[in-house]
């Protein structure tokens, strides 16, 4: 085969390759996006027990006012409902951990009790504070059922700070950040209960 | 060249075999991409020379790998996200294998090698899952939770260094095995 014919072959191959990839990418983009959304929502929503809600909480984000709290900032919220009734509010809370931002998803039921807490993002020391990123997480499970009034404000601290919560071994700052963030979220929920629960209640 | 290729094949062997299902996925994908690559390259190989063969094989490998990646994203997104790095590397392996002359060998030899490599991938994937997670076959199907062997595994084997250690142990075992069966009985010297 002479030179020009082989160049044509290579160019043709490149064209076919590029267009095939492009067509495939275009045709699968919607499916990939919906798969991605499903995966994201599963990752966020496994903080709630399955069957607890029947809506798509991530489709209806809440608009939060005064979201800058004492120890943390709320970056978003979602409402989970069951047959029209709000059963839980999910709050995304960002606070400063030991080595960087600590982002928690805190699920609070309609009575103001913690339903579950999940770490969405953390940069804590692996092997120490990094344990907070594991899921399921026995340390974060200790917060389930707690509310703003139970324990009292003084009790919302680590045992080291005369509170009632254990800390993750070797990670006081991480644990303190998490306790404060959860307490902040509960206080915010109490103060904005009507807005967060909506008209369904 | 052969050494470079073996080193390159070590990457998915160690990196993409955390569990049996991950190993099975990357093995199937490697098989599909390599197969399609070999078929498409066979008419081109004799017609092109030098740089143009390299260009053609590069384009072909890149096309096939990106198409396989998109297909994986569409149907196996969780697995794809865990192994994305190694899927991208498949293109390089195609080109390297092409240059090492693997595809010029007789078809039976190619087939034997690929089967051996696939078996090794699955063996390492299975052993790492048993040792690292204490279970086998988790994630292979949605309805089956996998066979639980131990309640808890050794965390080391879920990481790449653990895979390296395991590969070393397997190699040593093979060495010991072949030596025991091939050593000629030592003769006493006067």
UniProtKB/TrEMBL annotation, chain A:
<keyword id="KW-0997">Cell inner membrane</keyword>
<keyword id="KW-0249">Electron transport</keyword>
<keyword id="KW-0597">Phosphoprotein</keyword>
<keyword id="KW-1133">Transmembrane helix</keyword>
<comment type="similarity">
    <text>Belongs to the RnfG family.</text>
</comment>
<dbReference type="InterPro" id="IPR010209">
    <property type="entry name" value="Ion_transpt_RnfG/RsxG"/>
</dbReference>
<protein>
    <recommendedName>
        <fullName>Ion-translocating oxidoreductase complex subunit G</fullName>
        <ecNumber>7.-.-.-</ecNumber>
    </recommendedName>
</protein>
<comment type="subunit">
    <text>The complex is composed of six subunits: RnfA, RnfB, RnfC, RnfD, RnfE and RnfG.</text>
</comment>
<comment type="function">
    <text>Part of a membrane-bound complex that couples electron transfer with translocation of ions across the membrane.</text>
</comment>
<keyword id="KW-1003">Cell membrane</keyword>
<feature type="domain" description="FMN-binding">
    <location>
        <begin position="97"/>
        <end position="189"/>
    </location>
</feature>
<keyword id="KW-0285">Flavoprotein</keyword>
<keyword id="KW-1278">Translocase</keyword>
<dbReference type="Pfam" id="PF04205">
    <property type="entry name" value="FMN_bind"/>
</dbReference>
<dbReference type="InterPro" id="IPR007329">
    <property type="entry name" value="FMN-bd"/>
</dbReference>
<keyword id="KW-0813">Transport</keyword>
<keyword id="KW-0812">Transmembrane</keyword>
<keyword id="KW-0472">Membrane</keyword>
<feature type="modified residue" description="FMN phosphoryl threonine">
    <location>
        <position position="172"/>
    </location>
</feature>
<keyword id="KW-0288">FMN</keyword>
Automatic annotation (TrEMBL), chain B:
<keyword id="KW-0997">Cell inner membrane</keyword>
<keyword id="KW-0472">Membrane</keyword>
<feature type="transmembrane region" description="Helical">
    <location>
        <begin position="54"/>
        <end position="77"/>
    </location>
</feature>
<protein>
    <submittedName>
        <fullName>NADH:quinone oxidoreductase</fullName>
    </submittedName>
</protein>
<feature type="transmembrane region" description="Helical">
    <location>
        <begin position="25"/>
        <end position="42"/>
    </location>
</feature>
<dbReference type="Pfam" id="PF02508">
    <property type="entry name" value="Rnf-Nqr"/>
</dbReference>
<dbReference type="InterPro" id="IPR003667">
    <property type="entry name" value="NqrDE/RnfAE"/>
</dbReference>
<keyword id="KW-0813">Transport</keyword>
<feature type="transmembrane region" description="Helical">
    <location>
        <begin position="154"/>
        <end position="173"/>
    </location>
</feature>
<keyword id="KW-1278">Translocase</keyword>
<feature type="transmembrane region" description="Helical">
    <location>
        <begin position="83"/>
        <end position="102"/>
    </location>
</feature>
<keyword id="KW-0812">Transmembrane</keyword>
<keyword id="KW-1003">Cell membrane</keyword>
<feature type="transmembrane region" description="Helical">
    <location>
        <begin position="114"/>
        <end position="134"/>
    </location>
</feature>
<keyword id="KW-1133">Transmembrane helix</keyword>
């Amino acid at each position: 085969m002479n030179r020009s014919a082989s160049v044509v072959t290579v160019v043709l191959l490149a064209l076919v390759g590029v267009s095939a990839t492009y067509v495939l990418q275009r045709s699968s983009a919607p499916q990939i996006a919906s798969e991605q959304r499903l995966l994201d929502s599963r990752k966020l929503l496994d903080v709630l027990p399955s069957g607890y809600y029947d809506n798509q909480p991530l489709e209806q984000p809440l608009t939060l006012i005064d979201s800058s709290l004492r120890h943390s900032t709320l970056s978003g919220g979602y409402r989970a409902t069951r047959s029209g009734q709000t059963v839980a509010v999910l709050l995304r809370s960002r606070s400063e951990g030991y080595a960087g931002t600590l982002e928690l998803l805190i699920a609070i039921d309609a009575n103001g009790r913690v339903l579950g807490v999940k770490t969405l993002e953390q940069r804590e020391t692996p092997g120490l504070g990094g344990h907070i990123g594991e899921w399921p997480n026995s340390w974060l499970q200790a917060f389930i059922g707690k509310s703003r009034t139970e324990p009292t404000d003084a009790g919302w601290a680590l045992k080291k700070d005369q509170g009632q919560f254990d800390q993750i071994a070797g990670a006081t700052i991480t644990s303190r950040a998490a306790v404060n963030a959860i307490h902040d979220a509960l206080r915010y929920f109490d103060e904005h209960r009507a807005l967060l629960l909506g008209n369904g209640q | 060249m052969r050494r470079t290729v073996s080193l390159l094949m070590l990457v998915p062997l160690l990196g993409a075999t955390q569990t049996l299902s991950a190993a099975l996925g990357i093995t199937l994908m490697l098989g599909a991409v390599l197969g399609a690559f070999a078929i498409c390259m066979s008419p081109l190989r004799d017609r092109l020379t030098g740089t143009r063969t390299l260009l053609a094989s590069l384009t072909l490998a890149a096309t096939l790998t990106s198409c396989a990646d998109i297909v994986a994203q569409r149907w196996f997104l969780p697995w794809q996200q865990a192994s994305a790095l190694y899927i991208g590397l498949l293109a390089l392996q195609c080109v390297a294998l092409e240059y090492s002359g693997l595809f010029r060998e007789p078809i039976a030899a190619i087939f034997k090698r690929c089967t051996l490599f696939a078996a090794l991938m699955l063996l390492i994937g299975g052993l790492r899952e048993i040792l690292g997670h204490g279970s086998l076959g988790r994630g292979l199907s949605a309805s089956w939770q996998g066979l639980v062997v131990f309640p808890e595994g050794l965390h080391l084997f879920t990481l790449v260094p653990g895979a390296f250690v395991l590969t070393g142990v397997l190699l040593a075992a093979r060495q010991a095995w072949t030596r025991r069966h091939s050593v000629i009985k030592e003769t006493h010297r006067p």
